[in-house]
Amino acid sequence: MNKIAYVFAGVIGMAASFAGATAIPAGGQITVVACPVLGEPVTLNFSKNVSAAYSCDDTTSNMRVATCHSGGSRKPLPVVCASADDGAGGVTWNAPGCTTNGATVTISNYRGYRSNNQGGVLGVYDLGGACSAATADSVLTAQ
């Protein structure tokens, strides 16, 4: 899962409303045409069995990236709540059930990860089942 964190750092460091999630194929490239927020094309390489998606909004200059792994851990994970600007004038929490910064919630299912370029908080999300391309897409719109 550390590789996923490195992917987020690379993409979010470069530059995305969150309608129209687009799957990122392994080794796939996100072009400036597909995501005008980017200054240049970005190529992402993922480990085996990682699904990923992105959404890009030129109007708010916001980009979100989400990933998950089909063999991901289901060991209970305590998560310290942190909020970030969602790029649309609202707040996004890094985990479901969070309402207060610094509080702790536990995720005990498969998880996905999401971040955006408007706050840099890496969110952890309960997928409710095994990871797939569809669940990676759903992490982009999770609250």
The helix/strand class is: alpha+beta
Rg (CA only): 14 Å
Percent of residues in beta strands: 25-35%
- What summary fits the major beta sheet? 5 strands, antiparallel
Cα(first) to Cα(last) distance is 22 Å
Helix share, percent: 10-25%
Report strand order across the widest sheet.
1-4-5-10-11
Q: Averaged pLDDT, please?
A: 78
Folded structure, characterized:
- The protein is of the alpha+beta class and 143 residues long.
- The protein has one domain (2-141).
- Helix content is 15%, strand content 32%.
SSE topology:
Layout: H1 2-14, E1 22-23, E2 29-30, E3 42-43, E4 50-57, E5 62-69, E6 77-80, E7 83-85, E8 91-93, E9 104-107, E10 111-116, E11 123-126, H2 133-141
Antiparallel strand pairs: 1-4, 2-3, 4-5, 5-10, 6-9, 7-8, 10-11
Fill in the keyword field for this structure.
143 residues; alpha+beta; two-stranded antiparallel ribbon; 32% strand; flat; disordered N terminus
In short:
With 143 residues, the chain is α+β, with helices and mostly antiparallel strands. The protein has one domain (2-141). The protein contains two helices and eleven strands.
